[in-house]
Specification:
Nucleoside Triphosphate Pyrophosphohydrolase; 2 domains; 4-stranded mixed sheet; 10 strands
C-alpha cells in the first residue's frame, strides 16, 4: 500500500481549546481545515498512553484479572495494563504495572505491537508486551483499585472471548497476538 498521497487526507489544525480538564482526562476542541478547504470541529480525549502485558507462567498459563469498569458498569476480564506516567516509556509502565497489579516481575518483556483502540475520539495508544520468566514479588494496588487475579489456559481464554465474556479490545487483540506466537508465525 502506497503512502505517497496521504497528505491529501490531512486536516490542518487552526485553533485548539481545552473543552474539559479533569484529574485523569483532558478533552480538546480543535477548529480544523478539511482537505477540501472547509472548516470543521474536532473534539478528542488526550491520553498519556498505556501498556498492556500478557503474563505467561512457566506452565503456559495466562494470568488475567477481573476488574469493575465504572464507565461501562460491568466487571471485565482483562490482561494487566495501566496508563503511562509522565516521563515514563511503556516498557517502564509494563514493568511497573506487572508488579503493581499481579505482584510479579518478568525475566523477559517482549514488545509485540502498538494499538490505537479508540481512534475516533482519542489519541490513546497502548503498547502490548509478552511477559515470561515470572517471579513472585509484591502486589501494590492503587488505593482505589480492586481486582481479582486468576490463571487460565489460552484455550479457555479464547473460549471466554468466543462466548462474549471477554470484550475488552486490548485483551482481545492480545489473545490474537498470543495465538500467532503459539503458532510460531511471528
Amino acid at each position: 500500500m502506497k503512502k505517497n498521497n496521504e497528505k491529501r487526507l490531512v486536516e490542518k489544525k487552526l485553533k485548539s481549546d481545552v473543552a474539559f480538564k479533569g484529574s485523569f482526562l483532558q478533552v480538546l476542541r480543535d477548529q480544523v481545515e478539511l482537505p477540501n478547504g472547509k472548516p470543521a470541529t474536532r473534539e478528542y480525549v488526550l491520553h498519556n498512553g498505556a501498556a498492556m502485558i500478557i503474563p505467561v507462567t512457566d506452565q503456559g498459563q495466562l494470568i488475567m484479572l477481573r476488574q469493575y469498569r465504572y464507565a461501562v458498569q460491568k466487571v471485565f476480564i482483562e490482561f494487566p495494563a495501566g496508563k503511562t506516567d509522565p516521563g515514563e516509556d511503556t516498557l517502564q509502565t509494563a514493568k511497573r504495572e506487572l508488579e503493581e497489579e499481579i505482584g510479579m516481575t518478568a525475566d523477559q518483556l517482549q514488545f509485540l505491537t502498538t494499538i490505537h483502540p479508540v481512534i475516533g475520539y482519542s489519541n490513546e495508544k497502548i503498547d502490548l508486551y509478552l511477559a515470561k520468566g515470572l517471579k513472585k514479588s509484591k502486589q501494590h494496588l492503587d488505593e482505589e483499585e480492586f481486582l481479582e487475579l486468576f490463571e487460565i489456559s489460552f484455550e479457555d481464554a479464547m473460549e471466554l472471548m468466543k462466548k462474549g465474556d471477554i470484550t475488552d479490545v486490548k485483551t482481545m487483540i492480545g489473545l490474537f497476538w498470543y495465538q500467532q506466537i503459539l503458532k510460531a508465525k511471528w
